[in-house]
Amino acid sequence: MSLLHLSFYSSFTLSTLGFAFHRTHLISALLCLESMTLSIYIALSSWPIENQMTTFTMMPVLTLTFSACEAGTGLAMLVASTRTYGSDHLHNLNLLQC
């Protein structure tokens, strides 16, 4: 396993663990999701270079597009929950309450 693969796997695993265990604030969950998409982008960018292929060169651009949409939606949810509840704690967000 190369150093690039090890860094990708470790960053993705650490961001997944951070997302699973640190769920008190919405901003920390959004940062963990962004680090997951960043590690996926780095892996998809380096994979065609390692294999010397040109067929999957559009995948990193699509990943960045979805990452930007996810970030915009997450920040909109953060602003809406902060205006509604006064904080960004995730225990305030309950789907059963309308």
Automatic annotation (TrEMBL):
Q: What is its main location?
A: mitochondrion
Q: Which reaction does it catalyse?
A: a ubiquinone + NADH + 5 H(+)(in) = a ubiquinol + NAD(+) + 4 H(+)(out)
Cited Pfam families:
Oxidored_q2
Q: What is its EC number?
A: 7.1.1.2
Entry's localization field: Mitochondrion inner membrane; Mitochondrion membrane
Would you name any one GO CC term? transmembrane transporter complex
| Top-rank taxon | Eukaryota
Q: Which GO terms describe its molecular function?
A: NADH dehydrogenase (ubiquinone) activity; oxidoreductase activity, acting on NAD(P)H
Bilayer-crossing residues are 20-44
One of this protein's GO BP terms?
ATP synthesis coupled electron transport
Question: Its topology with respect to the membrane?
Answer: Multi-pass membrane protein
Q: Keywords in UniProt for this one? A: Electron transport, Membrane, Mitochondrion, Mitochondrion inner membrane, NAD, Respiratory chain, Translocase, Transmembrane, Transmembrane helix, Transport, Ubiquinone
As for family, the record states: Belongs to the complex I subunit 4L family.
Function of the molecule? Core subunit of the mitochondrial membrane respiratory chain NADH dehydrogenase (Complex I) which catalyzes electron transfer from NADH through the respiratory chain, using ubiquinone as an electron acceptor. Part of the enzyme membrane arm which is embedded in the lipid bilayer and involved in proton translocation.
Q: What is this protein called?
A: NADH-ubiquinone oxidoreductase chain 4L
Native organism: Podargus ocellatus
